[in-house]
Structure formats: structure tokens, C-alpha cells
Design a protein that fits this description.
Six copies of one chain form a homohexamer. By secondary structure, chain A is an alpha/beta fold. Chain A contains eleven helices and twelve strands.
Chain lengths: 283, 283, 283, 283, 283, 283
């Protein structure tokens, strides 16, 4: 069963905006000048490096919104692993429209596949543990819904989508509020019954204080695997344990083996390289 | 004289959209719950690593749109070089609003400073030559105007902003049109008098063919420094020479020393890491 | 401490849209024709019936967006109880603008105060118990964020803000999925670590089945107070207990006394009468 | 002949906004998790109480925008009277999409049918007279066009759609302008030839003064049936007579029997209960 | 008393859109390159030909949205007559912003002043009669509210603002409906009490038929002054008489002298030349 | 090969906005009242005067967005020359929708065809020379992309689309910057490699100074044909020569015969009369 669907109504505004950004006030002057309007083309979206694909619906919409006669037929689904040369989708239709939509389609596809691939890299590295990799709110402005989707496509879990869908008490909140206890009490009083409360701690002493107030989750920031192991022992299943700080494919296994439930990494969404996907003209 | 200005009217829609994306339907439930409304704070935007700052107006608007009482005072200007610990700006105002706006402000600032820093890295590496570094249309959907600005802040030059503001004839255009000559002729007939024409070539033979049609610029794709040197010789100042393919801080000097006018790199805008900038609470 | 804040950036689009809806293509032709432009006025927002006020920021913005010279000075805060004749706010400025903005301001204020007042009615009726009143997704299209806010102003708690911020498995989901067990298992696998899972049950038998899968909350639909009492006993604190169906000021006390944590009612947001608030010209 | 049509282009923005409001940044996480993507369903929109249906096009668009494969087949038209159990429309298509669109479709349908039903209640109560029921500008922000449409579906007439499409001189206008005469003269001078002028009066003395200036319509506010009868006599067909204040199913007949042309009631649009319409899964 | 006001909230979207259209994705590259940021300027908006000014608020907003430090001080009001060399407004502030906003400000001001001037030309030509000049729905897409305002500024009256604010039965409506009688009867049944009904006739026979059904206004299309005189006689004050077809400064007096109430002309809004207004740098 | 294409995605927002502007809050009350919903119609778009057609896609979209059952079949293409009576397109579908969409379709078609026709008039007048006619940024706010397209349809060339896609140094820039040399130097330093630089000169002396700095194009403002001839001689092919000022069908030939490359005229887009195109009902 797919956990990945986004209805077109959620995708379409972003794709329309990207096309208008690229078409500007005169449209694709190169293709209009150089390509005869009746010319048809068949092209393939092809992986140029290993990774995981994400964003096929964005690419499909980009071509369709440029010209409804263009048909994109997926050969793979979002979340599929890619090897160099893999055919991701076939595209047929007027050559002009395919050339016009190419860059926007690839910009979405490369960006989201890059995030999915980075996520998959960590997910694979910790697959032998019970931990999962998750993202943060450190996303590219305007694309959070899409980047969170790409994390899911890469086998990751989603964290908060915004400031409004869970309470996450960070160090500055605690400092300004005047301590873990008062912050937790205020959060508890304010939270709706379907809103979970997470609190960030930097030390085991803070952890003990936090645990006394029964949070749903605890963010263990920048701890060594050894300290994490002790933290997990103290939490004892009473809250979800999330580790953050310096998560990458090398560090992730040891962190995950500490017994935490989650590893979170901002760079998945803000600094992942695009995945190199190209568009090959077949005839 | 600054070449970097973007009027707020160009920035504001992106910042508003990012704030609404983060505030969702309930706003900042954590700060609302935990921080007393009358609490004031003073914080500093501080560089955590070396680089170049870009996006201060985006950060200023993010805080002001959350709460007009928040005042951001820049200590540096976009384009300034950063060392770890450098104070980029001071921010004063209601603590709630500062915490609410923090993530959006940093998401813009980190993303754009990352691009500026990457650009500056190449610009410095080729500073001993006459060449400049430039970007492409491989940008993050919806943020092209901002990312192109960040490239300028990093000392780079801008390429096309969209499909509509210059003609760039690529390999697929040539193939579908039926050759360099017919493509150039059609482009010439269609271009407005302020529209330049650039054409991509992969070999010296293609270069010779292209030169016969008098393009304003030639994109020399994936050539070695030696081939580039020969290409520059053949162009002989009749067109701008732009080199693309595998541009990074290591390869850039040799490429630039070939005598080309421009080095273009898509990764500056699509794959640069964010620059680590933090927000420190002073009291 | 106020739990009620909505930054203006969240409110402004709705107020702008409402003003444009009312101003149409020619503006306020009556006031333009009849009221001299230099005329000033002082008016008061006054309660005409008992209730709770909500939406003052919407009213303030409505007047300010019509004419920045109009000043609204609140005499009460959102959430305050009202008696007939209570002065809610004073407004001063150009008479034309006050007359132009009056209807939009009152439409927001009456609608949101109506919801706050209805919520407060139930909250008061169950104040002797540990239960709270909450709302649903049965909101007026386009105004959910505002109506949820009004529920908070009336002393209520918020339920889900949308399909995306918690999992709520209803009868149709269970039927189509093929049973409580499979639905719960799929939900568990899909939910992020900050996403709670609630499941709806109609009978005690269903409740027992659901409890076996450890949901965070259980929606007990259309049960008598006696059955609710037994349900609460069986839940035994392992999940939040929410009662729904036929909640009003008469039925709420007995339902709340069953020991449930929450009473939810769609009519608070979709069918509450507006609260009668008027605008009195002082001179 | 139908007087009820609204082209989809007028409806679509409101439906898109409502869907995006409900789908948020992650979509329908429950249905995505619990319902297999290939599952099909047949459901019926069914009336749960007597009333009048309005808003079928809003429901149709809601489902179609979620998934174009969903087909809604109306069994009744807007304006039709409903009995409990009446089948309003059949819906077929992917089960996920039907569950995803259900709440938005019902929120529109229930809200607009509630207004149509309330209007029909008054229209029926005064059907033995020549008077008609009409609405006001006291509408829900953002939904005026839809609520006015629902009034028409319930057999009512529409009043002004905004501040711009007719002149309505109210008590405050008269007071600030300095009297009925000066207000009417200024209105007459400003009104376009297709713009009617209505004036509000509270007493028979004001009525006489107003009549001397030849308004197109007179709003008789809060008068007893007896006073209304005398007012109608004095108007003598020279202007449309509209009665407002405390209009409901009990008071309406006596008010209408006074001979007025119109009864206007704000609560039709601002305080009508939603009509209970449900969605039954057939298989 | 001014009948001309449009609140900024009605104007701002059009001005923002025009500025973004002009600024594109890189802003004003010429002024950014050439003008030092600290440079201040004083300029004057000056009439280059006789006419009537309209659109000062559009110009003021254009400059303010580019740079809030720019101050526009009107020397005249919309509707004022202009002679060549007249100073319309003074503008002070940063030179860059003034140069950046100049074109958008002048595009609005010239376009709307052109319409006002054309309208004033007809209004003056018929000032000795009781007739007024009015516009139509033949407006520039997106600017109807502004163009109708310019007609008022030029001394004209407004006709319908859209398809929705009055009934105007044209020849095609009559033909498809099956005659004047049936069309009028259907219109009467559908019209709200504040909606006027106008019907177009081409001959005196059609006029007689129309008059039998009591329309509020009659559009006498393409009749000679003599026929118009007879038509006015037959109407006898029972309806507003509007003449259309070939209205210009030469033909208007004779047409107006026929006794009609209104002359309507589409070209006022769709084909009026811009009025030449320039921006002079004072120092 | 057509150089005229605009993808629907560029056109649709303008057409939607125009339809909503015309439909307002109640839709087409006349057609709804008078025309039975099942009535079908066949109509033709017919030229009433000679000219050039432009905007057929705008008209097609206007009808389709009102009712997807309406089919517009073009008989000509944008850019075609028209004689009175020429059939431009056939339209079939529901009569109501055709009447509802008529005005918006014709407003676009008449406006854009008017611009195309005016452009063609000049283009024909200079066809015996090597010069082309071009437009300016003096366009109707919000419609620049469409008006520039219409210029192309009339055989003209496009100038800058906005402040951002080329550098055009005007007299005020030179004055504020402190001379031609400093302005050119700053522009050269700021311009991207695909951005051309044009400079305006009023005298031959200024021309000589400008030429020394190697601009891509020179705008020769308000010079006589004789002076233009001398200017062209001095330029000697080193830059594009553009003549502006008082360009019309009478003056254009002599100006073009001076040897300039381009004639530019603002009135093509800001003051061209609409072309008279009508909609004839066939049955």
C-alpha cells in the first residue's frame, strides 16, 4: 500500500508557479523560434546516478500544464530505487512543449529525488535497528509539503509540518519560560488532545527533569552514542526518543544502535544534492 | 555601489508564503503556550561557519511580518564575508514573535547564504583570471529570483532568468531543428533586438559551424581545459565564451585559465549546502 | 497567559477578501455619495446580548484596511464575557471609512463571538467535571483557522485542524479496510512520531477490539451516559476518551459526568448563531 | 427555467481553498494509511432531515478536484425539497478520494442547504401574500456569492450583493449627512442610471419625509404589522416597501399581510443551522 | 463633495501586479547599476497636453510600494482640468525608486487620465442639455473598476459594472428568448428588488412593444437624432432613455438635444488615447 | 513557423480574472433569467473592419472557462489580415454560456487585434526598408505579455518586457549618474553576459560620446530623418540604431529610410483603437 499520495490539487499550485517563473512574459523564445510546431518527440526520463526517485507527479503535471497533449507514462513509482540508466518514465508529444517543460520537470524531480535518496541512504544504514530517520522544519521556503513527501518516499518518517501541528519545546523556550517544569505545564494546558508534546534536552540532568513531566517525545540533542544509550535506558519506553545532531551515513548506525526511536536531520531537506536525472530524446 | 537591491515588493510574497506554510492553521502553538506575551528579547544572528551572507532583507521581512514591533538591525550587508562568530544582525522585540519567525528567517538566510558562499568559493578560485562564475536555470522551483540574487551577492554573474529573456540553443534544439545553421537562422529571425543568442557546442567542429552564424555567446560544454583553450582561440573575441560541466573549486582555475569569459554551474543554485547561521539569545 | 494569539499575517488574507467581496467594483457608493470626506466619527462596539467576544483583531484589521486613519481601541480582550451594553471597543476616525468597514467588521465579530459564546455555554455546563468541550472539522469553508480560534476563545479545546495533522479512523475507514485491527495496524505504520491516532467506536464490543491496538484516543459515538461510563471504565486511562453526538447545554453535564475527557460538537462551528454586536455612533 | 446557475469558474476558487484548508501540508493521512489505493466505492448523499438542497455543484467540484475519476450523479436539483432519506446524489469512484473529499463536500452542502431551507420556511409561510423573503449583507465572510445563491435556491430574492451595487441610506448615514433630504439629494446626484436608491426609516414621520424625495425602495425597520400597514398605505405603490426586524416563521405571515413587498432577514445567511446531509456507503 | 474615492485596498492589487510585471525576476537592473543608492531626487508630474487628471492614487501607491520613503504630494485632485505644463504632483525621495516606479505610475496615470479626458470632452459638448455621458462593459480586461472610476472623474456616469448588477436585455437575448414580451416577463420574475431592467431596441416599433412591459431603462441603439426625439416623446418619462452608437464630440450635441437622459459610448474605456503626462526631474 | 505561441498556462490567469470581474457575485443575471438552459446556439466571430487578428486563444479560453461544452473553431490564425465580413472563428454550444462569455472574449480580441492592426500598419509602411517596428514598456497595466504578443502578431518586434531583461539608460539616468561615460561603465560592470545595453541620445554629440563606450544599441530620440541618416552613418553598424518619437504611418517611411534598424512607438500598446470584431448569431 502506498503511503505516498499527494492529490494533484496539492501539487498544482507549486508547478504552475514554477512554470510561470520560467516562462516569464514571453514564453520559451528558443523553442518557439527553432522548433516547428507540428514536430513530435519521444523522450525518456533516465537516472544518471544511483538513488531513489520522488516527484513523478510534479513532472507529469509540469508537462501536462505546458501542453495537455503530452503524455508521461511512469515506468517506476516514487520510492523506487534507481541505478544509472534506469528508465523512470516515457514521455510523448509535441517536441516544443517537451522542451519547454523539461527544466521545470527536472528541477522538481531532481530536487525531490535528491532528498529521497539522501533519506534512503540513512534509512539503509540503520535498517538493522528499530530506529527511523526523520526530517525537520529546516526546509526550502514554499516547498515543505513536497520535501516532506520526498522524505517519506525515501523511507523516512515525517516530523512536524509546521509550528502548529505539535508542540516542540526547545532550549530557548525553556530559558525564556524559566525552566522545564513551567514550560511543560504551560504546554500541557494548551495542547489539544491530539497534539503531542516533545521537549529538547542537552544533558541527562535535563532529561531527568523533563521525564518528570511526562512528555510524549524527547529530543536528545548532540549526545554521544554512549550518552544516548543511557538516555534511552532512563526513558524506559515512557516517551519516544529522538536523537539529533551530526547525523550522516557514517554516524547513523552507532546512534541508532543506542536504542533511540528516531534520528532527525535537517540537511535531508535543506542541503541534499539534487539527484542527476536526465531527459533523453529517443527520436 | 550596490548591485544587489531587490525591492521589498519582490521579496514579500515569498516571505508571506513561507510564514503561512509554517504557521499553518493554528500558529506557533509552542510559543503561544510557553512564552508570556509581554516578554521581550534581544538576539543576534551569528555565523557558525565561514562564508558569505545573503538574504538579510528576507530575514528582516520575516520578523516584521510576524510582529511589526520586532526590529532587525543589520551589522553587515549582503555579500559580506563571514567568519565563525560574526554578528550579522541584531534583533529586538517581543520574544514570542522572534521565536515564531526564527525558522523562516533562518531558512531563507541559510539557503541564500549557502548559494552566495558557494559562488564566492568559485569566484575566489578564478579571481586571477578574467573569467566570472555564473548560474543556470537549475534553480529551486519558486525561488529563482532569490537564488539568482544570492549568486550576485557571492560575486557571480547571472545567466538567463527564464525561458523568455534570451535564446539558448541546446543540443536537442539543434537535433530537432536539423542542424546548427537552420537553428541559428530561425533564432536570428525571431529574436528581439535586445535579446542575445547563445548556442551550445560539444566539439570544436560544432564550434566552427556555430561561429559561422555569429552567435552572441557560445556554451562550450564538458571540454577539457586544453580544448577550451583552442576554442577560445578560434572564437577570437567574436562571441562570449562560456564553459560548463564539472565546475568546482578544484577544476575552476584551470578552466578559467583557458581564457573563457564565463564558467557556469548548476549546482550553485540546486545543490549548495545551507550556510550554518544561528540565532543567539542575548538576554 | 493568552493562548489565543493569531498573528495578523494569518488574519489579513481573510479580512482583505471579505472587504473586496463587499466593496465590489465601485466601493461604498452610499457613503461616498452621502458622507462628506472630512467628517470624523466616534463609535463604540457594543454587545446587545450576553456571550463571549472573539475576533477583535479581525474587526481592527477591517477598519484599518479600509482607512489607516481609523483607530480601534479594545476595551476587552477576546475570551471576555459580555453583558448587554458592554463596550467592547472604541473606534475613531473618518466617518466614511467607519461606515464602509462596519459590516465586514461585524460579520467577523458576530460570527466568531457566536462560536465562542456557544462554546462557553457548554464549557460552563461541564465546568464541574474534568471534561473539556472540543470542535470538529465541520467548519465553514475558508474560515476553519478562525473558527477554531473562536472555540479556544470560548474555553474549548481544538480537535484536528485538517485531514493531515492526526489520524482519525472512522466507521467507513474500518469497514473499507476490513476491520479495526487492520486499520489500526496500517495507521500505526504510517503515523509520524508526533501524530496521534484516534479511532471511532459505536459499541462496547468495538471498544474492546480497538483498545487491543493501543490508540491514543477513542471517539465514543452516540452512546448514553451509562454506556460512556462503562466505556471510560474499560479504557482505564489507557487512551483519551472523547464523546460525540447530541451534545448541548442540557445533555452535556450527564455526558461529562461519565468521566470522558472530551465532548466534541460540530454545531459549535457550523450552526452557532451569530452574537448580536452593534456599532453605536457616539457623536 | 432555472434562475440558479453559477458557472464553475465562480465556484472553483472557494472549493479549491476549502480543500487545501483541509488537506493541509500532508493530505489525508488517515485514508492514505488505511484505504488501499485501488479500492472503489459507491456512496449516496442522503438527507437526514426535511429541507431544501443547495450546493450540489460545490459538492461535485469538491470530489472532482480531489480525484477526477470520481463521478457525482445528481438525483435532485438545487432548490428541490427534501424528506429524510431522500437520495440527493450518487457518487462512484476510488474510495480514498471519496473519503478525502467527503467533509469539504458536506460542509458546503450542509451550509448552503441550511440557508436554502431556512429561506424556504419563510417563503412558505408568506406564500399566501404577494411578499417575498430576501437576505442582507450579513453573510459569512468570503461566501456571500454562495449564500446569496442558496437564498435563491430556497425561493428567496436577493438584496444588495455589496456596498457597490445599490444605494442604501441607513440611519447613521442620515444622521451624519444632516437629514433625509440632504442624504437623498446627494444619493440622487451620485447614482448611476441603473442604481436604485433605498432609504431606511424607523417612523411614519421619517417615511413621509423620505417619500417626498422619491426613493426606489424604503426599508421599514422594526415596525409592527399595524404600522407597516399604514406605511404601505402612505407609500401607495410609489416605492418598494421592505420590512425588516424580527422576521421568523411565526412573525412573517402577519408582517407580509401588511402589504409590504419584501421581508428581509439577516439570520438566513448568518445564523441558519446546517441541514443534516450524510454520505452513506452502499458497498 | 468627492464622488470619486476608491479605498487603497481596491487599488493595491492592480498596482502590485503592475509593478511585479515590470520588475520581473531581477528588478530594475538599469537603475541598480547606474544610480547610487543614496541619491535623492525631486520630480514633478507635469501635464504635456490639455485634459483631465485621473489615477493619482494609483501613481502614489506605485511609488510607495517601490520605496516607502518616496512621498507624492498631489497639487491637483482627480477630476481637475489640465493645461500643458500644469504641475499635477510633486515627488521626493530616493532617485532609484523614483526611476523604478516611474513607468508603472505613468502607465496608470496616462491611461486613466486619457479616459477621463475623453469623457470630459463629451460631457462638455452636452453640458447645455440634461443628458449625461456613460460608459459600457467594453473595458480593458482586469481594469474595469479603474476605468469606470476614470469615467466618473471625467464627469461621466457609470453603467453596469458587470453581468451581475443590472439586467440588460440585448437583441440576441430577445431573439433567443422569442420576443420582447417573454424576455421582459422572465427578467421581471428574476430581478431582485434593487436590480433595474434595461432593454435594447433598434426601432420605434420595438420601442412600443418594450414600453408595454415597463422597463426601467431603454437603450436606443443607433438611431438618428430625429428618431431619438420621437422615441423620447413616446417614452414620456416612463423610463430612462439611453442613446448609443457613434457617439463622439461632433455627434453628441444633436443626440443629447433629442431629450435622451444618457449617451453611452464604449470607446471611452476601450479606445481613448492615453493622456500625455511626464515626469520632470527638478534637481 | 509560428513565432506567436503562448501556452494556455500564461493566458489563463488573465482570462479567469476578466471573467470573474464581469461575473461579479451573481453571474450573468440577464442570460440566466431570459435564456432557457437547454438552448443551443451557433455563432461566428466576424471582422467589422480591416485589420489583423490577435488573441484567438484568449477568446477560446474565455468561452471554455464559462462552459466547457462550448467549442470555438478558428477559421484564421493570429496574425492573419482581416477584411470586413471575414469569419474569424465559429462557436457552438449552450446559448447562455456564449452570451455570458461574449463580452470578455471580445474585449480581449478587440484590444489585441487593435494593437496587431496598428503594428501591421507601420510594418507595411516600412516594408520596403530594412527597419522593423517595435513597442515599448508603455503598456496597459497587467496585460504587457499579451500586448507584446499582439505586436508580434502584427509583424512587429518586441523591446524589453520589463525593467529586468535589458539595460536601457535614459536621459534621467545619465543626468543623475553624471554623464554618459560613468553610466555606461557602471552598466557594463553590472550586466550579465546575455543582457544587452542600450543608451538614449538626443543629439549627435551625445551619440559620439555614447559610441565611445560600445553600447549594443542606441535609442535616437526625436531626431529628423536627416539627423537620423547622419547618426546611422556615424554608428556604422557598431550598434543597433533605434529611432523613437512621433512614429506613425505617415512619418514612418522617411524615418525608416534613414537606415535605422528599428522604429519604436509607445502608442501601439497604450493608445491603439480596438479593432471592431462582432459576434453574429447564425441560428
Amino acid at each position: 500500500m502506498s503511503l505516498l499520495s499527494l492529490p494533484d490539487i496539492m501539487i498544482e499550485p507549486a508547478v504552475r508557479a514554477a512554470l510561470r517563473e520560467d516562462l516569464g512574459r514571453a514564453g520559451d523564445v528558443t523553442s518557439d523560434a527553432v522548433i516547428p510546431p507540428a514536430m513530435q518527440a519521444r523522450v525518456a526520463l533516465v537516472a544518471r546516478e544511483p538513488g531513489v526517485v520522488a516527484g513523478l507527479d510534479f513532472a507529469r503535471l509540469a508537462f501536462r500544464l505546458v501542453d495537455p497533449q503530452i503524455r508521461l507514462t511512469p515506468r517506476l513509482e516514487d520510492g523506487a530505487r534507481l541505478q544509472p540508466g534506469d528508465n523512470i518514465a516515457d514521455i510523448e508529444g509535441p517536441a516544443r512543449g517537451i522542451l519547454t517543460g523539461e527544466r521545470v520537470a527536472l528541477n522538481f524531480l531532481g530536487h525531490l529525488s535528491g532528498i529521497a535518496s539522501a533519506t534512503r541512504g540513512i534509512a539503509d544504514a540503520i535498517a538493522h535497528t528499530g530506529a527511523r530517520i526523520t526530517c525537520t522544519r529546516k526546509t526550502t521556503p514554499g516547498l515543505r509539503f513536497a520535501e516532506k513527501y520526498a522524505v517519506r518516499a525515501g523511507g523516512g518518517a515525517n516530523h512536524r509540518f509546521g509550528l502548529d501541528d505539535a508542540i516542540l519545546i526547545k532550549d530557548n523556550h525553556i530559558a525564556i519560560a524559566g525552566g522545564v517544569g513551567v514550560a511543560m505545564a504551560r504546554a500541557r494546558a494548551a495542547a489539544g488532545h491530539l497534539v503531542k508534546i516533545e521537549i529538547e534536552v542537552d544533558t541527562l540532568a535535563q532529561l531527568d527533569e523533563a521525564l518528570a513531566h511526562g512528555p510524549d517525545a524527547i529530543l536528545l540533542d548532540n549526545m554521544t552514542p554512549e550518552t544516548l544509550r543511557e538516555a534511552v535506558r532512563r526513558i524506559g519506553g515512557r516517551a519516544i526518543a529522538e536523537a539529533s545532531g551530526r547525523i550522516n551515513a557514517e554516524t547513523a548506525p552507532a546512534i541508532a544502535e543506542s536504542g533511540v526511536d528516531l534520528l532527525s536531520a535537517g540537511w535531508l531537506t535543506h542541503s541534499a544534492r539534487v539527484l542527476d536525472i536526465g531527459l533523453d530524446f529517443l527520436d
